[in-house]
Design brief:
Blueprint: E1 11-21, E2 24-35, E3 39-44, H1 50-57, E4 65-70, E5 73-75, H2 80-85, E6 88-91, H3 103-111, H4 123-137, H5 152-165, E7 170-174, H6 182-195, E8 200-204, H7 208-214, E9 217-222, E10 225-231, H8 237-245, E11 263-273, E12 279-289, E13 293-297, H9 304-311, E14 319-324, E15 327-328, H10 334-339, E16 342-345, H11 349-353, H12 360-364, E17 375-376, E18 379-380, H13 382-395, H14 412-424, E19 430-434, H15 442-457, E20 461-465, H16 469-475, E21 478-483, E22 486-492, H17 498-505
Parallel strand pairs: 3-8, 3-9, 6-7, 7-8, 13-20, 13-21, 16-19, 19-20
Antiparallel strand pairs: 1-2, 1-4, 4-5, 9-10, 11-12, 11-14, 14-15, 17-18, 21-22
Organism: Deinococcus cellulosilyticus (strain DSM 18568 / NBRC 106333 / KACC 11606 / 5516J-15)
Keywords: ATP-binding, Nucleotide-binding
Pfam family, one: ABC_tran
């Protein structure tokens, strides 16, 4: 194997890569070439092999077969340190920065193990390089600013600067727009276009519009194999969807005016404390009607979690009131909220939505385990439990080997459908859904969207909390925007504009 430095390389190739895990072929004879001067998007459903392939490129996994070529010469990447030495850098989905330190201190810390400056003396050299690279690529950031003061977009720029100062020639960007406002997305794309002349970049994403906007080359994976590799020329979303899932994209969106059936939740001048003991909600008020989808937009960390927990009885109000169907629920617990008709799809599905080591059929009756017909005189009726599972697995298209399969073994999309089945089968008046399609592939996302629209048509009120503006604009009847614990405005469908929502999300409306 050749030993070389990737700083001047023009091309890196994953050649005939196969990577297996027990019972699973993650990558099956995959070849992918990344060139300096292009943005290469990798698309695929969950489990298609995107992440495992990038883990091979970054040295986290070693392939069972195949090799990596740098400018046509074989190289061995056994660790991230090897990858960095060869000019491969990773920009993580969620910034991994020390919030108490400044930008330049964080960047200096990342250089310590790679022959850079001392963390305790970043001084002139690193600061000069930050200013130089910031100017060249439009990575606007203050080297002396503490990280905790930076927006999500600014923190992402710091992560990009980190890998650039490590000498990265090829950058892996994992879901880079997931926590950005629309304006920050466009700023990021402007940066990538400037960087393209000196670097090759590979982007993992589920957002088809963004792929069409920024990429030069597109590779599609399905079940570990390459099913499409094409230049981004005259393509449409339907073309990409067909390559990803083998069928046409079925875009879901609200049709017609909602048939409202009265106020289900009324939140009035609500205040609540966050985890740090400071106010996370500051006098917010809202109304949720039966038969409508109320979207909640905002950049992560602006009070969405606390709002969700207030609406479901998981977090107490310090001031204000919450009424469910006219009843004052202040001081009531989550069980009381559920009994009053409030169901909940949590953001962290694996930790708070299921019991991972319980079976699918057991998870489906968690809300009703001690109730008839599943329990009679304290004795479990396993035939009734099994029949309930059979019906719901079929109704909600939960793809599981058997009803006895442990929930932790399901894919993210099937875990989400399991949670939705359990919550919706309780016939709630309101469903509070927190990021219900986050991390799901296009097929599972479409199924969840269709389910939410069906329940809206049946008169259910839905609170949809999401960072995906396309999702919110397609499904919501109204959108309320949250910033720093307050609502910056509410828009009706006729008022939906991406730019306007983005400004409101940044507190500038």
């Amino acid at each position: 194997m050749a030993s070389q430095n990737g700083v001047s390389a023009r091309q890196i190739t994953l050649s005939h890569i196969t990577k297996t895990f027990p019972g699973v072929i993650a990558n099956d004879d995959v070849t992918l070439t990344l060139n300096v001067g292009e943005v290469h998007a990798i698309l695929g459903e969950n489990g298609a092999g995107k992440t495992s392939l990038m883990n091979v490129l970054y040295g986290i996994y070693h392939p069972d077969q195949g090799q990596i070529l740098l400018d046509g010469k074989p190289v061995r990447i056994d660790s991230p340190k090897d990858a960095i030495r060869l000019g491969v850098g990773l920009v993580p989905q969620h910034p991994m920065l020390v919030r108490a330190h400044t930008v330049e201190e964080n960047i200096a810390l990342s250089q310590v193990t790679h022959g850079g400056a001392s963390f305790w003396n970043p001084t002139s050299n690193i600061r000069r390089r930050i200013v130089e690279l910031s100017g060249r690529y439009g990575l606007k950031v203050d080297p002396k600013a503490p990280v905790w003061q930076l927006s999500a977009g600014e923190q992402q720029r710091v992560e990009i600067l980190k890998v650039l100062l490590q000498g990265a020639r090829f950058l892996i960007l994992d879901e880079p727009t997931s926590v950005l406002t629309p304006q920050e997305v466009q700023e990021l794309f402007a940066v990538l276009r400037r960087m393209r002349q000196d670097h090759g970049m590979v982007i993992i994403t589920h957002k088809l519009d963004e792929v069409l906007d920024i990429s030069d080359q597109i590779t599609v994976l399905r079940k570990g194999k390459v099913t499409g590799n094409t230049k981004n020329e005259n393509l449409k979303k339907t073309d990409l969807a067909r390559m990803m899932i083998g069928e046409e994209l079925k875009e879901t969106r609200v049709a017609g005016h909602p048939h409202l059936r009265g106020e289900m939740i009324h939140l009035s001048d609500a205040w609540a404390m966050g985890e740090r003991g400071t106010p996370a909600l500051k006098g917010v008020s809202l109304s949720v009607q039966g038969g409508e989808i109320l979207g909640v937009a905002g950049v992560a960390g602006n009070g969405q979690l606390e709002l969700i927990e207030v609406l479901t009885g998981l977090r107490p109000l310090t001031r204000g009131h919450i009424f469910v169907k006219g009843k004052d629920m202040k001081g009531q617990n989550a069980e009381a909220f559920f009994q009053s008709g409030i169901a909940h799809v949590p953001e962290d599905r694996n930790h708070y939505g299921i019991v991972p080591n319980m079976t699918v059929e057991e998870n489906l009756i968690l809300r009703a385990m001690n109730q008839n017909p599943y329990s009679k005189a304290g004795i479990m009726d396993f035939a009734a439990i099994r029949e309930h599972a059979r019906q719901n697995i079929q109704k909600y298209d939960i793809r599981t080997p058997t009803a006895d399969t442990r929930a932790r073994l399901l894919s993210g999309g099937n875990v989400q459908k399991l949670i939705l089945a359990r919550e919706l089968e309780s016939n709630p008046d309101v469903l509070v859904a927190a990021h219900p399609t986050y991390g799901l592939d296009i097929g599972a996302t479409t199924q969840v969207h269709q389910l939410l629209l069906e329940k809206r048509a049946q008169g259910m009120g839905i609170v949809l909390v999401s960072e995906d503006l396309d999702e919110l604009m397609n499904l919501s009847d109204r959108i309320v925007v949250i910033f720093a614990g307050t609502f910056t405005g509410t828009l009706t469908r006729a008022e939906f504009q991406r730019e306007k929502l983005g400004l409101m999300m940044a507190g500038e409306a």
